[in-house]
Design a protein that fits this description.
Helices cover about 75% and strands about 0% of the residues. By secondary structure, it is an all-alpha fold. The two termini are about 25 Å apart.
């Protein structure tokens, strides 16, 4: 989680690329990378259920490490897109590394599963805090190429250690339905929850993608200071992961997710009107906590009996990540088009915030259908 999701959660190269070698096209690299890191979940989840975990984990780790080193040698847009967008995106994160890892944790824990998922996801907030700072410090001192190599060696250490120790506990289960369990969508609450998570992925990461750039362009925050806003948001996201995990055990993960997503929506609406450093710091802290809650909890409801048995956990998780990848792929580029068309970020915040509000309504509807109540624990 530190190396993989921590890296893409920050998208540390957005501001650097936009100022230097890829000024007009950098948003697409991050979006493709993030969407592809989730899209293979439909394959990895199914492979996990039928017993293939360590094999896919090792292969994905090798591709991830090699691709990470190759990025440092890229010079043109298509090279960055191929190495950082496609290769790194397919290799890591939810697709073949993080997603199955949550399924492994589900093998070992039941009653405290929300708390365990929250603790696991803290790794991404630590990575999202440390990695951009390391990158920012190293690029002026050793150059872009050697900065990427340093990150590559860090990834080699952390993912290599995970490969040595992680293993599944329960025997494989060959459930019916193939890679994508389409009959599951006949359940209205199942469909509503998956669509809501896709919508949240569409709007949630817009603020994180453009936070530092907007701070520089609109609020006239110095470049070196604006950079740390994202690191601050990711550091605070660890609070959201732990707090939301504890609350989920008391009142249910969907209830907690709904509350934190309301906070995220409000901060998204407010963000374009934050015209000084103090207000931007406030938005970064509160928004970071809300994002952390979503990242730590959004796959947790899938372990509820209403969604299916433990033998199908890997596939359900993979399907959720694959659906979410559609939102991630489109979110940042749509925001970029809106920004270019309007010349500012007010419409961007309105678009992303409204997307979150609609998704919250769908999530609440999924709970209502599943429990036949708006107030029960779910």
């Amino acid at each position: 989680m530190f190396s993989t999701f921590g890296m893409v959660n920050t998208w540390v190269f957005q501001e650097y690329y936009s100022r230097t070698i890829l000024s007009e096209q950098s948003a697409w690299i991050g979006s493709v990378q993030f969407s592809l890191n989730m899209m293979p979940g439909i394959i990895s989840g199914r492979l996990f259920d039928i017993g293939y975990y360590r094999e896919t984990n090792i292969l994905a780790t090798c591709l991830f490490i090699i691709s990470a080193f190759v990025v440092g040698e890229c010079k043109r847009y298509w090279q960055f897109m191929l190495a950082q967008g496609f290769a790194v995106g397919v290799a890591y994160h939810q697709g073949f590394l993080n997603g199955p890892t949550f399924a492994v944790a589900a093998n070992y824990f039941h009653k405290r599963r929300p708390l365990v998922f929250g603790l696991i996801s803290i790794g991404s907030s630590i990575g999202g805090t440390v990695l951009p700072i390391v990158t920012r410090i190293l690029i002026p001192k050793v150059g872009f190429t050697w900065t990427i190599r340093v990150l590559g060696f860090i990834f080699l250490l952390t993912t290599g250690t995970a490969n040595l120790f992680l293993k599944r506990r329960l025997p494989p289960t060959n459930v019916k339905g193939g890679l994508f369990n389409l009959p599951a969508f006949k359940s209205l609450h199942f469909t509503l929850y998956y669509v809501s998570c896709t919508g949240i992925h569409l709007g949630l990461f817009t603020l994180l993608t453009y936070l530092d750039i907007a701070a520089i362009e609109v609020a006239k925050v110095p470049v070196d200071t604006a950079f740390y806003l994202i690191a601050l948001a990711n550091a605070c996201s660890s609070i959201g992961r732990v707090v939301s995990a504890i609350l989920a055990g008391w009142i249910g993960p969907v209830n907690v997710l709904g509350c934190f997503m309301v906070i995220a929506a409000v901060m998204t609406y407010v963000w374009p009107y934050s015209l000084n450093l103090g207000s931007l710091i406030f938005v970064s802290i509160i928004y970071g906590i809300a994002v952390g809650a979503f990242i730590g909890l959004f796959s947790t409801p899938l372990s509820h009996p209403e969604f299916g048995g433990q033998g199908d956990m890997g596939r359900r998780t993979g399907m959720l990540f694959t659906c979410g990848s559609v939102g991630v792929l489109c979110g940042a580029p749509i925001s970029g088009v809106i920004r270019d068309a309007t010349g500012g970020y007010a419409a961007v915040g309105a678009y992303a915030g409204s997307t979150l509000v609609l998704s919250i309504i769908l999530m609440i509807s999924a709970k209502r259908v599943a429990t036949r109540s708006l107030w029960g624990k779910f």
